[in-house]
């Protein structure tokens, strides 16, 4: 274990410029796998969604999933890419225990989509990210290392492998090098991943859930001394699984690379693991550009040559471009530029849209996601969409507030319950006895006790000073643990004393 010298990011950026490259893997939501008919549903018993093809038994022959090709083309078009007139799959040969074939069926020099771009916005500035390629490949299985304290293979007693995920269609989106002002690099990386999430989510071809691994990002980063044109050696931080972590991984690697370079050292070209708990990365495996995967065209699969007519048909099915959609939503919702920017920056655009779709007002949707939910996400170091509460539930809770059954304060308790898995908002209200009491019998008794307990305040109200009612309302709310209908309590106090 080597101790790393870290240089504060701000200081590092006075001497170096970061150069990034981002790779995003998108798991498609086809109902069957890339080259066989096995189901793709998440969370099944291990090794129940497998067949001779995805287990690579001798003699098994793959057949390409047409729906996956269609999804790949739609993704390519949405990323403003060219779509290949003819392309092939290739075998990428390497050994990995969770990869039954010992090669991955991928694409090499003939990707289905290439030469695209997207524009992302950070702090009101637009940055163009060039897309080198988007290619098709298949996912690997999953290893589970049992017995060690870290969950990694070192120190484990034994390992288990689950091939359910092996063969699920993936699209890998690779950017060209990204060079933006150093102080914006981390935010641009985050904004890009968030943008791609929204873009692909809008196509309906993937669940794009970072917390479930259906969207995974690799962050490549190198530093070059200011004024230099020579690229430094890059590290590849793999499988970063939240937007926030993308940003933190960029910042950590800037600090780490600067520490090495300042001491005259050389950065090792390697993969790195990101650690959510500490925000740090650690060494994975060494990697060189000379790694020889012995790529060769896959002989068992026919080349893919989508007709231009089909490509144009698919282009016509694309949803409106994100910039157009954002402008339309902003107008529909009546958000200010700042409100809209904050919503997008928080990765909450789709959540807010879905909450409004489910019946909440735009301001209520924004208030909950950017206030209460953002606070919780921040505390947990998680993204908003992995908090365990859905837009529909947020809209339901707001409807319960609007109906007077709970107030904002009680709503927070309902959020707690829903997130803790206690059921629907309705079930949490019943289970936790959270309903606002507006029944005159119960409220009247509490009002009588409050009046008896504070004769001074009561006398002031009798003398016409209605502002004194606040003290009595406070006493009633306290007695009823915040569950009294404050408006009705006020009316009852004034009825009794004036
Ligand atoms: Zn299969």
TrEMBL record:
Keywords, A to Z, come to: ATP-binding, Ligase, Nucleotide-binding, Protein biosynthesis
| Example GO molecular function | asparaginyl-tRNA synthase (glutamine-hydrolyzing) activity
The organism sits in which domain of life? Answer: Bacteria
Q: For the Asn/Gln amidotransferase domain, which residue ranges apply?
A: 350-497
InterPro entries in the cross-refs: Asn/Gln-tRNA_amidoTrfase_suB/E, Asn/Gln-tRNA_Trfase_suB/E_cat, Asn/Gln_amidotransferase, Asn/Gln_tRNA_amidoTrase-B-like, GatB, GatB_Yqey_C_2, Gln_synth/guanido_kin_cat_dom
Q: Which Pfam families match?
A: GatB_N (PF02934), GatB_Yqey (PF02637)
UniProt name for this protein: Aspartyl/glutamyl-tRNA(Asn/Gln) amidotransferase subunit B
Which source organism does the UniProt entry give?
Answer: Aeromicrobium ginsengisoli
**What taxonomic ancestry is recorded?**
Bacteria, Bacillati, Actinomycetota, Actinomycetes, Propionibacteriales
């Amino acid at each position: 274990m080597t101790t790393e010298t870290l240089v504060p990011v701000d200081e590092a950026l006075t001497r170096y410029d970061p150069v990034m490259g981002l790779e995003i893997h998108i798991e498609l939501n086809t109902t069957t796998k890339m080259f066989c008919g096995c189901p793709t549903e998440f969370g099944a018993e291990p090794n129940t969604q497998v067949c001779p093809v995805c287990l690579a038994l001798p003699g098994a022959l793959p057949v390409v999933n047409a729906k996956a090709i269609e999804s790949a083309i739609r993704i390519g078009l949405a990323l403003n890419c060219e779509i290949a007139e003819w392309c092939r799959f290739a075998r990428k040969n390497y050994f990995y225990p969770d990869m039954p074939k010992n090669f991955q069926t991928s694409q090499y020099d003939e990707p289905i989509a290439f030469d695209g771009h997207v524009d992302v916005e950070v702090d009101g500035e637009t940055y163009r990210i060039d897309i080198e390629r988007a290619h098709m490949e298949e996912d690997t299985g999953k290893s589970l290392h049992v017995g060690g304290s870290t969950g990694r293979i070192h120190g484990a007693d034994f390992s288990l492998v689950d091939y359910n995920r092996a063969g699920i269609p993936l699209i890998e989106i690779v950017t060209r090098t990204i060079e933006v002002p150093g102080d914006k690099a981390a935010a641009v990386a985050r904004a890009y991943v968030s943008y791609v999430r929204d873009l692909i989510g809008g196509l309906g071809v993937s669940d794009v859930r970072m917390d479930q691994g259906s969207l995974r990002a690799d962050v490549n980063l190198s530093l070059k001394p200011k004024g230099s044109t020579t690229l430094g050696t890059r590290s590849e931080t793999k499988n970063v699984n939240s937007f926030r972590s993308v940003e933190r991984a960029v910042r950590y690697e800037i600090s780490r690379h600067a520490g090495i370079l300042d001491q005259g050292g050389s950065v090792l070209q390697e993969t790195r693991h990101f650690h959510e708990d500490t925000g740090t990365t650690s060494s994975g495996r060494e990697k060189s550009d000379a790694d020889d995967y012995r790529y060769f065209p896959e002989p068992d699969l026919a080349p893919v040559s989508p007709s231009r007519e089909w490509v144009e048909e698919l282009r016509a099915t694309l949803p409106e471009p994100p910039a157009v959609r954002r402008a339309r939503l902003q107008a529909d919702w009546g958000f200010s530029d700042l409100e809209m920017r904050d919503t997008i920056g928080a990765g909450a655009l789709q959540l807010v849209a879905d909450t409004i779709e489910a019946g909440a007002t735009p301001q209520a949707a924004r208030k909950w996601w950017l206030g209460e939910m953002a606070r919780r996400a921040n505390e947990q170091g998680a993204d908003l969409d992995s908090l365990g509460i859905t837009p529909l539930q947020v809209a339901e809770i707001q409807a319960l507030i609007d109906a007077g059954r709970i107030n904002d304060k009680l709503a927070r308790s309902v959020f707690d319950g829903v997130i803790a898995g206690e059921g629907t908002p309705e079930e949490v209200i019943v289970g936790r006895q959270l309903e606002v009491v507006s029944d005159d019998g119960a409220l009247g008794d509490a009002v009588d006790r409050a009046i008896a307990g504070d004769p001074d305040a009561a006398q002031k109200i009798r003398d016409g000073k209605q502002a004194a009612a606040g003290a009595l309302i406070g006493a009633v709310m306290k007695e009823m643990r915040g569950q009294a209908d404050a408006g009705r309590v006020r009316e009852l106090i004034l009825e009794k004393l004036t």
